[in-house]
What does this fold into?
Amino acid sequence: MTASAARKRFREDEKRRDSEHVSFLRHKGFRWLWIGIALSGTAALGYALIDQQPRPNGGTWYGYLLGTIGLGLIVWLSLLGVRKRRINPGAWSLKAWTSAHVYLGLSLIVIATLHTGFQIGWNVHTLAYVLMLLVIATGIYGVVAYSVLPARLSDNRKEMTRAQMLDALTALDRQLESAAQPLARGEADLVLAALKQSPFAGGALARLTARYPGCATARARKGLVGTSETEQRVRALLERRLAQLGQIRSSLRIRALLEVWLFLHVPLTLALIAALAAHVISVFYYW
Amino acid sequence: MTGVFQVAIVGSGPAGLSAAARAAARGLSHVLLEKTDHLSDTIYKYQKGKHVMATPSGLVLRSDIDFDAGKREAILGTWDEQIADHKVNVKLNADVVKVEGAKGAFRIHLRSGEAVEAANIVLAIGTQGNPNRLRCPGADSPIIQYQLDDPGEYFDEHITVIGSGDAGIENALGLAADPAQRNVVTILNRSADFARAKAANVALLEEAEREGRVIVRRETEPAEVRDAELLLNTRDGQEAIRCDRIIARTGSQPPRGFVEAMGIEFSSPEPGAFPKLSPEFETTTPGIHVIGALAGYPLIKHCMNQGYDVIEFLAGNRDLKPADEPILTAKFAALPGNRSVDEWLGVFGRNVAILADLSVLQLRELMLDSTAHAYEPGEVIFRRNDPGSSMFAIAEGSVAVEVNPADPSITVGIEQGSIFGEVGLISGRRRGATIRAAEPVIALELPRMAALKLLATSPGAARAVGTIAVERQLLQMFGPGITKTDVAPLVASAELVQARSGQVIVTEGAEDKDVYIVRSGSMIVEKQVGTRPVFLSYLPAGSYFGEMAVIDGSARTATVKAAIKSELIRLPGEAFLAFLSRNPGLRERAMKEMSARRATNAFIESRKDGFSGAVDLYSQTAQFLVDNGIGEATDVLLIDEKLCIGCDNCEKACADSHDGLSRLDREAGRTYAHLHVPTSCRHCEHPHCMADCPPNAIKRGPDGEVFIDETCIGCGNCQRNCPYGVIRMDAKPPKKPSLLQWMLFGKGPGPGEAPYGWRKSEAKKQSLPEAKLAVKCDMCAGIDGGPACVRACPTGAAIRVSPEKFLTYTKLAEDAE
It folds into this structure.
């Protein structure tokens, strides 16, 4: 590395070490929010002032302009998924991309709506418009989830990693297994069922709500009512197992809530791009 | 085995083996003494299949036995075979306990009671030392063993493990792991807790105790080893337990005491010092030679070459050039003047003051690690703010220091024979000034490890560097206009103070008047507000404190304590005051600086009523960060868990930027008030990982990053030495299919670190080397755009900061949302 490159890197490092502790929403003093507002404001102003003949619609020159901008934005916004996974050198920041993604995505509401000229119908054009609104709606949920849930995820974690949570469960299971040896057949079966059940058992609904009605550990805890020393010890262990399961399930729930919207956002985006292609092709075909 | 051998070689590691093979080839009557029942115990004890590296690659091997990088088994096999072929006279189970006599007639006493006589001795015993033996009656009982190779081979036994370190705990857990072995395992601990062991091991042991798999006896010591029984001293008196086998893991004794008992002198009392040696490896006791790791050469090739050389010298070959001759020739080739290696060694040894005490052997070794430079007049040697922890010594010529960053024309000279760059070496921080050659200069650059080794082995060099460092630090602190003569009285009165982590240097309200300079490490400043200490500021190396009390005669306004193990220079208050009165300009500057600090204090105090919660949070967050090593960091990854969505894109980006292995563990690590310190390199000012790297593969790079270069031998020392657990040992994974192939066709494991199974099977398919090497963060050095973990964070949760910029009220109290 040359001396000047080294000094450039040092300046960049110092800048990085000096600042940058801001979220994607506030990135660079809300730069992309202002750009988004300016873009939608200009589009709205143009819509109000320009006399579109015969009436405002996607087919006038202004309509084409808005449509082109919208299409460009949608294609660019969908590339966030690639940006996130392509770790090449260069002064890009995924945070800046996310920030732009959020605010430019929101500005699409204005731009695309003006592009329709408020002409809504049962056709492929409106389908694309509605899909876009759905994508944006799921995205808004994502932004809310990203600003509320991380702190809860952190609180629930209590400095444990996911692997440590599972290790703690395994350690409890080992103790339970030996403690349950002297139990009677019926009670032992309850404990065995609890040990056998995967901590991840339960469907998508259980994961999203952290409610596990089929939880064998809870059932074993309820079923063990005796007062012998063994039973008391096993019961205490089962309670600890329940608490540990609770932490794991809570973590699963928060992570699911952080991710579930992507299962709509991304496929809807793909559908939107397909619908957009149909919309663009049909428009030019029937021109 | 009778008669007097010409040479007895003690220790059958690489050095001893090579010496013995040469002696056999030369027809010298010899004996090779090995305390265990096999050759080369240190390498023998490596884990099965470990890949042994052969560095430095530039060094030719000069030995009668072969050595090349490869698996432990292959290397040991070759050596056993060749030692037998050379008809080396090997004596196994020969543990030397005492040496008597003098050159020509040494008597070497073995533990067995036998004695061996030899005219000369070559000590090649390495630095591992001997395990500490039990000190109680019955300590020589055959049921005691000091090592446990395979816990799976014992059944139905009552086994007692003595020792509360990791080795003891791991042995106890191993013996109790399989209930089918039906062993009754007891572990003894002299104290009440297992403070010396890793937390994870202690947790496992406690779990095993709860489950009744291991009996843990605390505050218990062995009193007497009897037949199938062990008498214990417990808190409540003596007790005997059944015991068929004792595993004693109570640490080991470094071999220094054993060596000194032969009358051999070491170069200094420092723990890192080596025996004083002549160019022929002879110690201060004539007839006894020291080679290998004990002589300061931990690498296998060095050891083997020395084994060859020492026998050649003993056999009377005085013309033998050391094996490093071609390396030194190449090293000096770039210097002007066309001088020979010996001439250059003379120039450096004579002209450079700090090298005066070194033997030719030590000088040669120092040269091997160092770089010789020639500079034209005006050429920049290093620039202000360049990272660098090497020290320079001027053999010919002189240099100019640009003391004023704003005006490069103002310079101070440093003359021939002196040194520069020592502040970077001692403080671990960036260069304080730009230095140019003032005339044609020949200088030696000593990298950090070589310089530290020099200071440890040569007390004269340590003293000289210490004085110069204090003087330069004062000059740099007080800036232009101050000369050496101005600070001379201060330098004379200065005193070096060592502070352990957390030690209080200055107490709020006290009346003492000394001024301190932080030489290495860092300090935190606290003020008592109400009943709680509140964090005021962080002082990195190079800053000074305590002058307020001197200047205005007030009591101490705040408490200053060491954030980490630190070194301070104490300047007595009177001397400092006298210095200020002689230099009125400085007094003004000091007053200005004081008012800035006063303003911070006042600001925090004004906050304490209205926002006491915020001040508390700030103070505790700062303390939390210091507790987690930020105090010694230069650039550390933090994660704001109010923003982190747990996508692990930071880890994936890290893996994809560096060979496919992630160098950070996002989830692991401590968290306070949603600020998380993940397991990731802090790039410490004085990296712990550098402390014991046999090939010196860990360096500080041009961006200030601490990195491991390609000479890593995979020994794992750095991993063990890092207190933050940020170094992993792993093989370089195979290349993944491209991102596009994954996105379109689902080929390969996708972004981020590939799962272990995929790496393993793919590596086997491509028959890639499996050597596990040390892997750690290099701060994405040389990658345009900087650290990938930060660039790839979608929400801004991942930040990399430096302590002096981040440990401030505005940074810590600001909300990221």
Remarks:
- The mean pLDDT of chain A is 91.
- Chain A has two domains: 26-158+261-285, 162-259.
- The CA atoms of residues 226 and 232 of chain A lie 7 Å apart.
- Chain A touches chain B through 51 residues (CB under 8 Å).
